[in-house]
Every structure is written in structure tokens, then in C-alpha cells.
Write a structure and sequence with these properties.
alpha/beta, single chain, 3 domains, Nucleotidyltransferase, domain 5, disordered C terminus, 414 residues, two-stranded antiparallel sheet
Length: 414
């Protein structure tokens, strides 16, 4: 294997490349543009310095996304995504005056692999399907966050001039995202316009929103709510706020549509993956949350050496800080935030779907542990089970996952 290491300082329009040998000697440097020709120049430079399919030159770069990273991964070489904060701390080794340049950054990245390659992990060798699911699942999660933000903006604006409308969607499971809520607000964005809606108009709006049952009681409820006395802004101010509501509503509708369409695409892609059956066998994991889990774990089952590594990556395992006689155990904040977010939903849903998970959570709470800590501990336990099941290719088994609870709940012979 050639003792050559490559560092690439990534930018939006160009990339600086540095190659060094085992002794730290600079072998070559190159600036390429973000194009197919630039990639060809990079691969030719690597080939000139001993790059072969059997012994590819490892590459360090400060991002895990983008076309350049994707093309480098396609060549089968190990690609190391170095955290920019880590690279900044390494830079102090080579520039005491704190100077900075793109070429120096590329050389620093190459030296990270030369000196500490064992301390960093290459990007996982995920399949094309797993990478596609990751794109869809992350986009859907972003769309949900955008939808929540847009809904909060709309709700806050309504509270300033139309607080009576906030009671319309209180009992809807979807809340402000309900099609009825959005259809009604689009038709009557101000209190004055809402109070003028007749029963026949309300019925037509409910049908337009997709309501099929109990339409008459809902019409009467809305007819009464929208006519209740409330404080109002001056007429011109109210009209202006109604216009702003229409603009916010269009943004909100777009966010809702994006989230729904991406959810359908994510679930459809996830259903075709071989790991889908194992992941969804776990209590609390459905098709969408399972897709989010797969998106962050990938399907390269050699990525995590053991379950402890996976738990640390997800932020479920605590971190211990020891100095002298003082030892402190704290929650882990440096983690995969997306996986931690879906872990909270997973653990919460497992409380009602798994008797063993519920008993485990109750035992943690009985020790005066807070809800969040107990839920994180349950997530930690479920991650260990998931790592075992994916490694051994077996589905979830409640009796194996929580043997103590299974023994206690088993019927005794008369």
C-alpha cells in the first residue's frame, strides 16, 4: 500500500488538493474546479502517485456530502469526513502564527490521516438504496421542521388579531395542519369575513377539505365559534393582517405538501430495503421513523464495531468525565442530532407498544430519574437490541429483549 495521503480543502467553486508521503513531505498540490474535468485531474494526480484499485489513496475532506464526495466514494477509496473544528485544532500544529490558506488547510487534512488515521473513521460503504433513503428521510425531516416553524408563525400572527380562530382546530388531531383549518382560513382570513360565512358555505368548505362524516354537527360548531364576540383590530388594520395571513398560509400549505409528498416517497423507498422488515419489527418504529433510523445508521453493518459505538453515535450513552477523585456522568451532547430526534419518538411510542419497554422505563423513573433521562436510557437499550438484530439478521423478540419482564408476566402453573 502506498504511503501517500490526500487532503482536499472543499469550497463551493474550487477545491485545493495536497498529497503528502509517510514522512510528511509535500508530493504535489493542485487546485481543481467543481466539474467533471476537475475530478479527472484529481484522479490522474492520484494515479501518478501510486493509486490503484487494490491500494487506493485515502482522502480527507471537511464534508460528507456533495458531488465530489459521492464520486470519490464511487471509486472505492476510503473517504474521511473530518469535522471542521477538529481540522482547526490540528492547524495550530503547523501554523503557530495562526495563518490560514486553502493550500494549508488541504495539507493539514492530509497530515491528519498521516498521523492519526486510526482515530478517524471513513464514510460507511452504504448501498445506493440506503443513500437514496437517507436523502429522502432527511429532506422529509427538514420539511416537518419547516412545517412546524411555518405553523408557529401563522398561529402567532392569528393571536394578534383573530384569537377566536385558534379554538377552531383545538380538537383536531392534526391541529393547525388540518385540511379543514387551512381551507377555512383561506376562505375567511379575518374575523369579519369568518362571521359572515353561512351554514351552506361552511358545509361546502368542509366537503372541499375532505370531511365525509358528521358534517352537520361540525357546521353548527363552526357557525357558533366564528360568531362569538371577540376583540378586533381597526378595519383597515384587520384587512392588512388578513393579507399577511394569506401569505403565511401559502407558505404553510407548501410546507405541508412537501412534507406529505416526501413522506410517501420515503416510505416507498424504505419498503424495498432488506433491513426494513427487521427495523419495523421493533415496537415503536413504523415505516417513516424506521426510514429515519436507517438513514442515519446506513446498511454498512461493519460501520460500528459494537453496540457501544452505535449508542455513543446516537447520543444515548452517557459520557464520563473523570479528573483525580472527581467523576461526573453527563448526557452526551455531541451526537447525531437527527438520530437522537427520532430516538425520542421511538422510545415514547415503545412505552405503549412494548410491555417490557414500559417496565424498563418505570424502573428508571422509580429511582427518581427524570422522564427525559429514563427515555434516553430506554433508547439506549433499544439501540443495543437493534445492533444485535441487524448484525445477526433476526427480527425483534420481546422475550429476549426484556427477559426479566417476560418471566414476571408469564402465567404460573396451578
Amino acid at each position: 500500500m502506498p504511503g501517500v495521503f490526500c487532503g482536499i480543502d472543499w469550497a463551493s467553486d474550487h477545491h485545493d488538493v495536497a498529497l503528502i508521503d509517510q514522512d510528511g513531505t509535500l508530493l504535489a498540490k493542485l487546485r481543481i474546479d467543481d466539474s467533471a474535468a476537475g475530478l479527472t485531474h484529481l484522479l490522474d494526480l492520484l494515479a501518478e502517485h501510486g493509486d490503484t484499485p487494490e491500494f487506493p489513496i485515502p482522502v480527507a475532506i471537511e464534508t460528507s456530502h456533495g458531488l465530489l464526495v459521492s464520486c470519490l466514494r464511487a471509486t472505492g477509496r476510503p473517504v474521511y469526513a473530518i469535522n471542521p473544528l477538529t481540522a482547526a485544532r490540528y492547524r495550530d500544529r503547523y501554523a503557530l502564527a495562526r495563518k490560514k490558506s486553502d493550500h494549508l488547510d488541504a495539507k493539514v487534512l492530509a497530515n491528519i490521516l498521516r498521523t492519526d488515521i486510526a482515530e478517524h473513521r471513513p464514510l460507511p460503504a452504504d448501498s445506493e438504496l440506503a443513500q437514496a433513503i437517507a436523502v429522502l428521510a432527511r429532506a422529509q425531516q427538514d420539511a416537518v421542521w419547516d412545517r412546524t416553524q411555518a405553523g408557529n408563525k401563522l398561529r402567532s400572527h392569528l393571536r394578534e388579531y383573530f384569537p377566536g380562530f385558534l379554538t377552531v382546530f383545538v380538537h383536531f388531531r392534526e391541529g393547525i395542519t388540518s385540511p379543514i383549518t387551512r381551507t377555512l382560513l383561506a376562505a375567511a382570513p379575518t374575523p369579519t369575513e369568518a362571521a359572515r360565512l353561512s351554514r351552506s358555505q361552511l358545509r361546502a368548505l368542509l366537503i372541499k377539505a375532505g370531511r365525509q362524516r358528521e358534517i352537520t354537527p361540525e357546521v353548527e360548531r363552526l357557525h357558533q365559534l366564528l360568531r362569538e364576540p371577540q376583540m378586533q383590530q381597526p378595519h383597515l388594520v384587520e384587512q392588512a393582517m388578513g393579507a399577511k395571513t394569506q401569505a403565511l398560509l401559502r407558505q404553510f400549505n407548501a410546507a405541508c405538501t412537501s412534507a406529505d409528498e416526501l413522506e410517501a416517497a420515503t416510505v416507498a423507498a424504505f419498503a424495498t430495503h432488506p433491513d426494513a422488515e427487521i427495523i419495523t419489527s421493533f415496537p415503536g418504529l413504523g415505516a417513516l421513523t424506521g426510514a429515519r433510523v436507517l438513514a442515519e445508521l446506513g446498511d454498512d453493518h461493519t460501520r460500528f464495531a459494537d453496540a457501544r459505538a452505535l449508542k455513543a453515535y446516537a447520543g444515548a450513552a452517557p459520557i464520563t468525565r473523570a479528573s483525580g477523585k472527581k467523576t461526573v456522568v453527563l448526557a452526551r451532547h455531541i451526537k447525531n442530532q437527527r438520530l437522537a430526534a427520532v430516538g425520542y419518538l421511538w422510545a415514547f411510542a415503545a412505552l405503549t407498544a412494548s410491555p417490557g419497554a414500559r417496565a424498563h422505563y418505570d424502573r428508571r423513573r422509580a429511582t427518581e430519574e427524570r422522564h427525559t433521562a429514563a427515555q434516553r436510557n430506554l433508547f439506549n437499550r433499544m439501540l443495543g437490541c437493534l445492533h444485535h438484530c441487524l448484525t445477526t439478521r433476526i427480527p425483534y423478540n420481546e422475550e429476549i429483549a426484556f427477559p426479566t419482564h417476560a418471566e414476571q408476566s408469564a402465567p404460573t402453573a396451578a
